[in-house]
Amino acid sequence: MSELHVKNMVCDRCIMVVKQQLASIGFEASEIGLGYVRLQQDITEAEKKEIATTLSTFGFELLDSDKAKMIERIKNIVIQRIHHEDELDLKINWSSLIANELKSDYSSISSLFSSVEGITLEQYIIRQKIERVKELLFYDELSLKEIAYKLDYSSVQHLSTQFKKITGQTPTAFKSQRLGMEQRKSLDHI
Known about the structure:
- The chain has 190 residues and is of the alpha+beta class.
- It folds into 2 domains: 2-64, 2-Layer Sandwich (Alpha-Beta Plaits), CATH 3.30.70; 67-189, Arc Repressor Mutant, subunit A (Orthogonal Bundle).
- The chain has helices spanning 12-24, 45-56, 66-83, 94-102, 106-117, 121-139, 144-150, 156-167, 171-177, 180-183, and strands at 2-7, 29-33, 36-39, 61-63.
- A 4-stranded antiparallel beta sheet has the order 2-3-1-4, sandwiched between helices.
- β2 and β3 form a beta hairpin.
- α3 crosses α5, α3 runs parallel beside α6 and α6 (121-139) crosses α8 (156-167).
- The longest helix is centred in the C-terminal third of the chain and has 19 residues, at 121-139.
- It is globular.
- It starts with a strand and ends in a 7-residue tail after the last helix.
- The relative contact order is 0.11.
């Protein structure tokens, strides 16, 4: 069995595409999730290169270094919590959550993330939350108060302040422009 770490797998559609592409070149995944694939068979270096080439046409990248794998795992934990769960846990402690999931010390995780990504892990989490706010504003199904609650902001004012700091406009201005989709970012580019 071989395990591959795949960069830019940020959603269920990504998992589906990776699974389909692997099957198209003769590989079957025994397990697949955000950022990783476990193949039923061992693979050679040539097969690994074939997989890398196939996946790269869809914007995915195989990761080899331990640092790159760790960064991708951190990003996937954050993305999973913010973008794929109905509500964030109230009073979520990100440092404990990430440290427990990765079975590592948070200060070393945070230092690694900052040194590789050029922003702090806290800034990355905020940016992910703002992208989720943009998505929810665009779909116009929830009030700003409901969005603030859903994403564990202490108040609408806190959300609005953070939103304006990151985007340069208020959530109301963003929503009223109806340009939301052009202003949203792909999760793997945050």
